[in-house]
Batch of 2 targets.
Target 1
Amino acid sequence: MTKKQKKAVVLTAVLSLCLGIVPSVSAMHIMEGYLPVKFCVIWGVICVPFLLAGFFKLRKTIQENRKAITLIAMAGAFVFVLSSLKIPSVTGSCSHMTGTGLGAILFGPAAVSVLGIIVLIFQAILLAHGGLTTLGANTFSMAIAGPFVSFGIYKLCEKLKVNRKVGIFLAACLGDLFTYCVTSIQLAMAYPSESGGAAASAVKFLGVFAPTQIPLAVIEGILTVVIVIGLESFAKPELKMIGFVKEAK
Amino acid sequence: MLTIDKLSYQSKLRYMNAGEKCAFAILTLLVCVISRSIVIAGLVLCLNTFLIVCKSGVSMRRYLHFMEIPIVFLILSTLAIIVNFSRTPLDAFAVQIGSIYITGSWYSLRFGIQLILTALASVSCLYFLSFTTPMTDILQVLKRIHCPELIIELMLLIYRFIFILLDTAHAIMTSQNARLGNCDFKTSCKSFGQMGSTLFLRAFKRSNALYDSMEARCYDGSICVLNENYPPKTMEICLIIVCEVVLAGIVVGLHFFL
């Protein structure tokens, strides 16, 4: 293919992706009352060990350095505010990012698990995204699974000496995609299809949400990279304090 | 900035005991989610609409606008439940494409409607709580049920910070807009990134300043605030109990007689 042809292919691909976007897309919170009680409880119980680990870690950090409490709270508020702001999108629809990928890269996945559940409660009550009965399922997909994958990919890329920006992009983007896959599987387990069971149902949920979630993940990746570049260029001392750029001294 | 927060402070039910409101919202929510019946969902939806619009004083337009928020999720995921791809057509509808049918059954259609109603009714329970009860009151209820101190403290601080950061973010975004910072997609991505990193920096500085000022006011690990106390009224408690018992009774009745 010549350069022009390649450009044309990419352009049409992007356009066709964007045409699928419906207005007001938020990160994929399962809405209040959508899951049966059994699944609400199961997902809640699955979250408990992660939350406890995160809680003990946070408590230790705060006992060692009491000043950390305002910083951790600020981090939580930062994630919430990022997730409540409209992000730029090509079609002019209104979408929001999760912000947990960035949080996991900056503060580590354990802290994000506890902050995540707090942010999700605030999102449910103040923004009407997600809900109280589905809090367990949402916490697992957004505050545990997503951030852990983001953090893992970020560290892996660092080990493999992949370009830093690419690493951050992949971490945020794949973390988001993983959240979307986990949410689809959660929905599929609760509502298996009449023909084909939970697997067929999972494929359907993945397919239905793909047009909204895939562009969102890409945009989230790009924004996270831009934010981290900005941070590294003029907030180095602060990043050192939270232990983000230890190795870059 | 956060409309729901504003509404909760303006609500006519603001000075009702927060524990009562939480109990009502959560019990109704549970009845709704556990029963999963169309009748209960309809009743709860009507009850909460009445409470929110008439008793709490939220305008109908605003309430409907808020009900639209989860609609995208609701439509997409219910579609995924109702529509099936199968080699054999089901009884409600079937569209043939090649050797595969896009099809659905009456059972799943009915199930879908039930699911939509249950979800909307549950959302109305959540709205009842968030439209009438400010976050600080909810935190007091959490304290009453012995949620860990650290979590409550973090929630309190995060809640306070949200407004400071939102304010800063909006100021930055306004000035970016005024300087054509969102003229095309690439520029707006760049602007958003710059806004994000500046926001982080400001947040960091704020948190340091806040800690210093807390330290100066003898902060020793716990934040003490004076609570306004609105004692529960017997009348209200009775009403809530009657309401829940009636709902539960209908659930049991439907279960045995249908």
Target 2
Amino acid sequence: MVLTEENTKRGKLLQQYVTARITRMDRINIGLFDYDRYNTLYFFLLNADEQIYLRYGGRDVRSATTYLNLESLELALEQGLELHKQYRAGKLARRTAPPPKYPRDIPALVERTVSRGRCVECHLIGDLENVQREREGTLDKLRDLHRAPDIRKLGIELDVPKGLKIASAAGAAADAGVRPGDVIHKLNGVDVWTFGDFQWEYGRVHHSATEIAIAVERHGSSLDLNVQLPRFWWHTDLTYRNLSVDPRVYFRSEPLAREEKRTLGLDDEGFASRVVSIDSLSDILESHQLQIGDVIYGVDGETRDEVANTAELHIKLRRQAGSELSLQVLRSGERIEMPLKTTRMSFRK
Amino acid sequence: MFNRFSGSLLSLRTPRAGLFFGAALLSSAIGLQQKALFAKDAVTWIESYDEAIEVARETGKPIFLEFRCAP
């Protein structure tokens, strides 16, 4: 099997590029090449002046490859060539580069990897940047953990091989006027060429935002549309980033519907959630004695959190690793109190 | 008529045969099998970022930069 044959379309496109594959981040300007480090693969198309034309990558909780596709990669390669032509002709505005930042600038990363001569892997940068932020008191969990919002929460399903072409629109996107066949080309005024571009810009939208502006191409015209953001639009399942999320709670829960909360006599505006899985480490670490099916309706007497729709998320966002809490739990109709001991991830590869 | 590239790239929107990235190809293959795979790659991959910048400057080509874990 061959990755790229010369006589294929992709091969011909790639031969018009200088192709570089980076597997160690030690000397990479991670300020310029910032991206969600939990992508398995990520590509940048740029020029020798380090102006990035576009990104190719992005993922969701379903899979690391949901939005990776050879056809859309070829499309991105073609777009990159055209943007390069425009740049060389002086028709493309130069972008201001972000401040440079290197792995050596993150003390927590230096301690764990650089100073030990170990490989600086992409996901370690993501993890240890957060560890460093926590040490410095600058960690904003909402911003720093939930980096890649899911466009499906807007009701958008993409025709993945066609890049940012809409396959179907429902919910907030449909309400805003997005239609199947539209091709998104701007988000909040910024050009986006690929799903990677879109997810990057979307991830930079402040979590308090209530709408985004997108521009779509439809039948040869450009339309500006405002999409109202649903509640918790930024929230994604953090399971695939589990190594980077402290505190560790060793269970997963799912939110109860408002009706069910009412039926159970719980705060219907609260974060009551049902335990759906228990990590076996909870026994070893004596973290808790929750059982699948338990409903956690309170944490230290708190039942609501404006940004958390589950008890688990409330704890992850609001508590420090190592804190000991009291859970209010509904089990088989009986309300019980239960201690929970959270922990810090003690080992990172 | 809206055209992001002043007419030059409208053809990019035309349908093409879809080929998915095989997870087995790009993320699951390991060890020697994967090394052999990359050894057959027709594209020459530069493993130094600085060298890629230098070559791009010399040739006038854009850069296709891939970040990934070691094969």
